[in-house]
């Protein structure tokens, strides 16, 4: 399987895992705050991956090989992003918030690539990104009160930190592998956020529904999702990866339509179709370019 396809599949699987986070947050018991939800997500996800690394013998052999600066940078990106995401969603709303946060990520990735690495996106990125953002708008609508500009800024900051994480994370994979690297990132964030467990209500985490939410948001939307994403970015560019992550709201919409019998209007289905086509555009463009480069190398 070509590396481009392998990276795209891993990234799309991560988007599928991420897509259930909104549903899990919505069904959390009363009293759940963005801070405790973030801590539960990081702590449960980190412990899950720690157990996985122990069983599969994927723990780093030595502390000296750890890329500490990259690890701290990725941890800071996810920490800031998570707090901005949950806080912004709480005040802006899930629909409009998804457009701002998820939709801005590939734009930020292109800006970072241009400013830091002097690289410009390929033509298919512009086409796919425009189609995907249009699809998100169709799925979610855009009913937004511009007076809440502060929270709009929080969601834009989440998109920026997410793009920065995608750009930096391949360096972790090269050194210690995707499972161990994201395990250390999640546990680092959980350690920093640990005091919130004494500042905000946590009784809801001990209820049956609370336990289900914590396990789901930790194992599926953190442990599995970030590991798949981190592994996928090792095969494709951050610009392409961030655009493929726009499949997350498409997945969330599909969950709503098929499992919760939510709106399946023509506009919503059009949005899903636009995101699906944008993914095909990226895959085809990347595969053709990879084949062309291979032919040039062989000749």
Provide the fold topology.
Elements: H1 3-18, H2 21-26, H3 34-55, H4 68-92, H5 94-117, H6 123-140, H7 149-176, H8 178-193, H9 196-199, H10 208-232, H11 238-244, H12 247-258, H13 266-298
Task: Write up this protein.
This protein has 13 helices and no strands. It has 299 residues and is mostly helical. The chain is globular.
Offer a few descriptive terms.
about 300 residues, about 80% helix, mainly alpha
Task: Explain briefly what this protein structure is.
The chain has 299 residues and is mainly α. 79% of the residues lie in helices and 0% in strands.
Estimated share of beta-strand residues: under 5%
What's the N-to-C terminus distance? Answer: 21 Å
Number of helices: 13
List low-confidence stretches. none
| Strand element count | 0
N-to-C SSE string, H for helix and E for strand: HHHHHHHHHHHHH
């Amino acid at each position: 399987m070509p590396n481009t396809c392998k990276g795209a599949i891993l990234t799309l699987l991560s988007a599928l895992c991420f897509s259930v986070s909104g549903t899990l947050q919505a069904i959390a018991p009363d009293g759940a705050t963005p801070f405790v939800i973030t801590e539960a997500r990081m702590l449960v996800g980190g412990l899950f991956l720690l157990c996985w690394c122990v069983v599969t013998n994927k723990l780093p052999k030595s502390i000296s090989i750890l890329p500490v600066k990259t690890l701290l940078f990725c941890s800071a990106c996810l920490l800031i992003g998570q707090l901005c995401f949950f806080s912004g969603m709480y005040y802006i709303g899930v629909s409009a918030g998804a457009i701002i946060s998820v939709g801005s990520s590939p734009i930020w990735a292109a800006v970072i690539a241009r400013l830091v690495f002097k690289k410009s996106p390929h033509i298919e990125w512009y086409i796919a990104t425009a189609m995907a953002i249009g699809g998100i708008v169709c799925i979610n609508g855009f009913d937004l009160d511009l007076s809440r500009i502060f929270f709009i800024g929080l969601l834009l900051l989440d998109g920026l930190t997410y793009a920065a994480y995608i750009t930096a994370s391949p360096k972790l994979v090269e050194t210690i592998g995707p499972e161990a690297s994201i395990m250390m990132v999640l546990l680092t964030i959980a350690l920093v956020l640990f005091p919130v467990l004494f500042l905000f209500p946590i009784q809801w985490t001990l209820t049956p529904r609370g336990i289900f939410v914590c396990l789901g948001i930790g194992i599926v939307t953190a442990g599995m999702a970030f590991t798949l994403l981190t592994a996928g970015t090792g095969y494709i560019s951050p610009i392409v990866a961030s655009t493929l992550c726009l499949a997350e709201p498409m997945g969330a919409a599909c969950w709503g339509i098929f499992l919760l019998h939510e709106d399946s209007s023509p506009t919503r289905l059009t949005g899903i179709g636009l995101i699906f086509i944008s993914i095909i555009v990226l895959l085809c463009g990347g595969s053709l370019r990879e084949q062309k480069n291979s032919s040039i190398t062989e000749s």
